[in-house]
Amino acid sequence: MSLEWRGAAVAPDDEMPSPESWEPVSVPGRPEGFAGAEAVAYETTFSDPRDESDAHTLLVLNGAYAHTRVWCNGDLLTSHDAYFEPLRVRLPESEEYRIVVECRAPADRFGGLHATDQLPPERCVPGIWWDARLETRPDPCVSELSAQPQVSEADVTDATVEVSATVLSEEPLDDRITLSLRPEGDVRGGGMMDRARVSTDEETTSVTYTIDVRDPSLWWPHDRGEQSRYVLSAKLDDDEHSVTTGLRTVSYDDGLQVNGEEVPVRGVTLLDPTAEDVVRAVDANANLVRVRAQGTPPEVARACDDHGVLLWQDLPLSGPGSFDNERGTNLAARLDATYAQHPSFAAVGVHDEPVSPYADGLGSGFLDRLRFRWRAWRTGYDSTEAETVAGAVDSVPTFPVVGPPGIDPDAATLYPGWRYGDTADLPWLCSQFGVGDVVAGFGAGALGTADPVDTPGFDRARHDRHIDDGVAGSQAYQADVVREVAEGLRQRRAPVVVLDSLRDVGDAGMGVLAADGSEKTAHDVLADSYEPTQVVLSAPSPGERDVVVLHDRPESTNLTVEWDCNGEREQAEHTVGPFARVPVDTLTLSAGDEVTLAVTDGQRVVKNEYTISQ
Fold first, then answer.
1. Start and end of every Glycoside hydrolase family 2 immunoglobulin-like beta-sandwich domain (predicted)?
2. 281: left (phi over 0), alpha (psi -120 to 50) or beta
3. Fewer CB within 10 Å: C terminus or N terminus of the chain?
4. For residue 417, what are the contacts with CB-CB under 8 A and spacing of at least 6?
């Protein structure tokens, strides 16, 4: 049942909000008129929605940011403090209802990216962002259902699904709940069905059960296999509830493994995630999205499942400053439980960018490198609390600290050619600071429009140090940085490479797409650089440079490689092994040379073009 809502900015206190006036608002949503408000109240009224077959009315809120209280007819029913976790509230019986929901910006450190200047204020309005609806259910009923798949890393045919169901009942109950797990669509394998006992004198009870999966069909990233899914259903008398899940293993040991097999990660960061962005990530040849320092909307997580894109989910914690360790641990455990049913769920980051940038504007000379090392040495970060929080996550690998070189991060953010130095400094950064295996952010900013006005998170002064010739020059520079760092990291066999970022949130930014989804110059460059099998130059600069085949597939392949330098074309046949890096020839290049490289396995041709700069 849909609802009509009114809203008002309010001063937070302990009482139910009573603003002098309300105005119509769209819920779910982020009413721009309340941008900058510390707290916003939302009100809706309705008559009893039940028919004669219904006994329970549930208010379902999803994405209630960030600290939420709910009143019904003047009585406080519940409070909630994790917006990524669905809030389901059973409403008392009444002929008429007045619901008031107050959403407050967090007073603690767990506002994530929405508590920084990286997003526009209108995207950070306290509110019900993702879903708001009423459900009516019979008695007894299954009000909540969750699934956590478990697959043995030693034997992927050994699979179970851990089921948790919440049952509502007005009378003492002694019954059995029917649980079924069936393949979705054309997935091979049969269904499973079992019954679990429900016996209680309480109005609400939880039922847990383990379903063994026979002949499991596994979920894979889109560049490695099919996205098999299963539908879990729980039936109690006349009521049935279902969720969709999938089976896979994910681990990290010198690289990400899915279902026991190595999967080189080519990822992009999402700053304002939408389901469309997941499709755009696939178009850019990415197989992972990192949702940075915020919760992932359910439709985005489902899109990752559907399109075979791995999901790196951060805790909403970003920027310098201490945080409550106990609160962080609690949130991490709840985040893990919330996303565990999604087969795309692959990693969790805890503390994003925990120190202020310390090397902005440094160049590539000897003295600049000394300054870089000195500043890095002076920039300390104690990772103990972040590691403790990460310990609350047990279903996927964790990266407790995501930040710059010099603080011993678990996942590094590297910005040569943008924040400091130039792209040729990448090998020095990696070797000097022991980073480069897991890269959670790299790239450069660029204008999306000729006269940008709204540019959250975009450093125009930094941009202007590199570029001074308008949109075309800005985007060309970004494309060069993206290409050189992406290809450099892949040549170094970095197992996890994530671009910062896919799409801008304003008129300019780090995205290879503008805010409206239109492509900047760097988009196609990234897509080329992220091709699983590609041929690249060892460096796009004058001198003797190797032509190198990058092959990120688990099988050996016969390839034809072709290179054209200023119209002179050559070709060679090569057999490359799994996950190979193979130099096939050496070119002597000068400034201004035009180089086109191509590789084919007989079915698909992939090209890469360069103009050699000084």
1. 145-243
2. alpha
3. C
4. 423, 425, 444, 466, 480, 481, 484, 485
CB atoms near residue 586 (< 10 Å): 11
- pTM of the complete model: 0.97
Residue located via tokens 């009000």: 143
**Bond from prior residue into 28 cis (ω within 30 degrees of 0):** yes
Partners of 200 in the β-ladder: 173
Rounded Cα distance between 564 and 570, Å, is 6
Q: Please give the sequence-ordered ranges of beta strands (E in DSSP) within 155-280, or none if there are none.
A: 159-168, 173-183, 192-200, 204-213, 230-236, 239-245, 250-252, 256-258, 261-262, 265-270
- Asked whether the beta carbons of 443 and 423 are under 8 A apart, the reply is no
Helices 366-378 & 426-433 angle (0-180, nearest 10): 40
Residue carrying structure tokens 């047990």: 394
Helices 275-283, 298-307: crossing angle, 10 deg rounding: 30
Q: What is the pLDDT of residues 104-127, one digit of tens each?
A: 999 999 999 999 999 999 999 999
How would you class 253 by CB atoms within 10 Å of its CB: exposed for 0-12, middle for 13-18, buried for 19 or more? Answer: exposed
User: Which domains, and CATH codes, for the chain?
Assistant: 5-136 (2.60.120.260), 141-245 (2.60.40.10), 250-530 (3.20.20.80), 537-611 (2.60.40.2420)
Q: What is the largest CA-CA distance in the chain?
A: 84
* DSSP tag of 227: B
Question: What stretch of H or E contains 90?
Answer: strand 87-91
**Amino acid letter for position 593:** D
Q: How far apart are CA 60 and CA 48, in angstroms?
A: 16
